[in-house]
Amino acid sequence: MFLSLFIICLTVAVLLAQVNKMTAKPIAEAKAMKLQNAIGEVVPAFDNDPVAEAYKMPVGTGDSLLVYPAKMGDEVVGYALSSSSNNGFSGEIQIMVGFDTEDRIINYAVLQHAETPGLGSKMTEWFRNREKPSQSIIGRDLSQGTLAVSKDGGSVDAITASTITSRAFLEAVNKAYLAYSESKPDVFSGATPDKIASDAAHESTEIKEEEKNNE
């Protein structure tokens, strides 16, 4: 009995390993395609590879977000940022937000959520309804202030009967803007994340040498 059970378990394990091996590449390709499509949806046309040029920026909470710079030639035309909030009605909400070079929101795409169908799920379209400026975030300049629902003193109309979802969604957008605002000066100055780290290390070395000489 023990031998039979061992053989069955071993056979199942081998089969699962083979299935996982066979599906790993298609799943990875599907995820990459979904990411590329989301980036293309939230920024203007570009001819570079934002994923290959992506870098991380801190958001001041011990966390960091991926920034995908979109370029046409050598000119930056926008930034796509992957952001999230764990405060949705049913857990985590993941979005992709696009900004132009003047702090305005170009568009957004909802990547993942588990919100209530017909209520919180309306966020996929609710916040880009151009016919109702009070609920749309498209074109808003976040340098003038971060976003909040009207119930919290903000200027964005929450999804009907889904204020919690709306707050979480706007939290993710605001988090994306924070990372964007931190990354924008570095990109415009021609600095890359690697160069920034190198310059910081070089500066630290110079300070230590100067302190040693002063001693």
In brief, what are we looking at here?
This protein has about 220 residues and is of the alpha+beta class. It has one domain. The protein has helices spanning about 1-40, 125, 165-190, 195-215; strands at about 55-60, 65-70, 75-90, 90-100, 105-110.
Keywords:
disordered C terminus, 4 helices
Please give the structural blueprint:
Layout: H1 2-42, E1 55-58, E2 64-72, E3 75-88, E4 91-99, E5 105-112, H2 123-126, H3 163-188, H4 193-214
Antiparallel strand pairs: 1-2, 2-3, 3-4, 4-5
Question: How would you characterize this protein structure?
Answer:
- The chain is an alpha+beta fold and 215 residues long.
- The chain has helices at 2-42, 123-126, 163-188, 193-214; strands at residues 55-58, 64-72, 75-88, 91-99, 105-112.
- Strands 1-2-3-4-5 form a five-stranded antiparallel β-sheet, with helices on both faces.
- The longest helix is centred in the first third of the chain and has 41 residues, at 2-42.
- The N and C termini lie far apart (78 Å).
